[in-house]
Amino acid sequence: MGYKRIIENQIVPFYEPKKLKVKDVTPLHINQYINYKLKSKSPNTVRKHLWNFSKCFDSAIKQKLITFNPVKGIDMPKKVKFTGAKHYNEKQINELMGVVKGDIIEGIILFAIFYGMRRGEIIGLKWNAIDFDRKTFMVQHTVTKIGKDLHTKDSTKNKSSYRSMPMSSIIIDALNQIKASQDEYRSLLPNDYIDNGYVFTHADGRLIYPNYVTRRFKQILVKNDLPIIRFHDLRHSSASYLLHLGFSLKEIQVWLGHGDIGTTMNLYTHLDMEAKRNLADNLNDKFTNFGK
Fold first, then answer.
1. How does pLDDT run along the chain (292 residues), one tens digit per residue?
2. How would you write the chain as a 3-class SS string?
3. Exposed/middle/buried for 51, CB within 10 Å: 0-12, 13-18, 19+?
4. pTM of the entire structure?
5. How buried is residue 32: exposed, middle or buried, by Cβ count under 10 Å (0-12/13-18/19+)?
């Protein structure tokens, strides 16, 4: 859905005034777009835009509207290594979990930190995806909001994002509490309760919207004087904590549902270096006493 937003809000407004037909677009026109967008967007963002371009032109080729994809004739902006992710350390995670107790998004935050799940994956979790007997759940349904429209779909960001996850006792207890609360409200509101099958809902069963989670999360941080981070940074916090506990980048890739190890390395290598520095310091202390 993010790619649709890019087309509607970025690409179309730029090209619509030019009145170009698909067959008339050349690499020069693509470069004009690149130069314009690089004034306000990062090279990585513009590369995402170009991916949209390329897919559209590939489709046009299949429909025999054109014979050449003009994106293939340009030099892609050089990819910039992402280093802007913020994350909470163990102490801050502990503080957050303390102040969020009893809040409507407590469970959502728990899943974000424990599993490093994306916001849309957490909100999209349904009861029929949970197997209490096997103590597992499937990440298989997502909820996103584009403009004023809410989109629910039985798919994830990529194939690796579609994954089965184990449930520990803390997760099972949290889910049982949510289920009991929903059962109570269902009995109190027999005619007004909205039974849509989702795990994380308002008291009357209405689905919690993505932007509500973002807004409520920031309110909690401000109220409790915690460092301001994005909700998505809880995913980075999860990865950071896993590295701190000694898990490898490959293990974190599988846990977070990254499509390939390169994505994990690009995002979290700086955290990996922190772990290595701590290891080096510990070794240094040991070796200092060797031979004495």
1. 456 777 877 888 888 888 888 888 899 999 999 999 888 888 888 888 888 888 889 998 999 999 999 999 898 888 766 555 688 988 999 999 999 999 999 999 999 999 999 999 999 999 999 999 999 999 888 888 766 667 776 665 555 557 888 999 999 999 999 999 999 999 999 899 999 999 999 999 999 999 999 999 999 999 999 999 999 999 988 888 888 888 877 888 888 886 665 555 565 655 555 655 665 666 666 556 655 5
2. CHHHHHHHHHHHHHHHHHCCCHHHCCHHHHHHHHHHHCCCCCHHHHHHHHHHHHHHHHHHHHCCCCCCCHHHHCCCCCCCCCCCCCCCCHHHHHHHHHHCCCCCCHHHHHHHHHHCCCHHHHHCCEHHHEECCCCEEEECCEEEEECCEEEEECCCCCHHHCEEEECCHHHHHHHHHHHHHHHHHHHHCCCCCCCCCECCECCCCCECCHHHHHHHHHHHHHHCCCCCCCCCHHHHHHHHHHHHCCCCHHHHHHHHCCCCHHHHHHHHHHHHHHHHHHHHHHHHHHHHCCCC
3. middle
4. 0.67
5. middle
